[in-house]
Amino acid sequence: MSEPTRWVTAAVLQALATQQLVQGDVFSVRQLDDWLAGAITAEQRVHATTRLCALGFLRHRTRIVDGARVDGYTLNAEGAAAVREAAAGKVRKSGPKAPHGKRHALDPQSLSARLWALLRMRRMLDADSAASTLCDAGDDFERTRASIRRYLRRWADAGAVQESARRINAQGTSNGLKRFVLVADAPQPPSLYARKGGQA
Question: Is 87 in contact with 50 (CB distance < 8 Å)?
Fold first, then answer.
């Protein structure tokens, strides 16, 4: 499986994990797109669901509702197991690679630890709203926002988050604010020096 296919497949499994789906659950393409919230494109979603069907994780099903065709999927036993792994932060062949050597726990009061906790709670963030939430009285907002952008970009490089195709409209911006979607959940964020494919 190529890296792009692994990536989008992991995004779909993570989206299913947020809904706590179990074996035999049925969902439509429209529901899946809502759960993905723009994390991947429609074309990427087709590639991912096609691959998941080939792996035996999903079974494609078509229904006729009010005269219109509705595509959907049933979660098989293997898929349910993969969803449970995704819920536990074990995204299949995607996400951050384990760092070499022993890794020390982050200070829970550090900006990166608080940002990661906020991202795990909200599942999607932009740097402005994150800075507004995490800045304490007297903090330098611009400096905090710049640090948050750096963390989000590094985590995206490591495969833990993905930049959303959709942006937030905001005054003073031409294209809107970048949003980052959590894909590989874990108690701690990946190393700031981690890269996809295990390169530092």
Answer: no
pLDDT per residue as tens digits for the range 44-82: 888 888 889 988 899 998 888 788 888 889 999 999 999
Which range marks the domain in which residue 48 is found? 3-87
Residues 81 and 124 in one domain: no
- For the record, the structure tokens of 14 come out as 């993570």
Distance CA 94, CA 9 (A): 9
Q: What global pTM score does this model have?
A: 0.45
Please state at what angle helix 111-122 crosses helix 127-134, rounded to 10 degrees.
120
Backbone angles phi and psi of 37, in degrees to 5: 50, 40
Alpha helices in 135-194 (DSSP H): 141-158
Instruction: Judge contact between 42 and 29, C-beta under 8 A.
Output: no
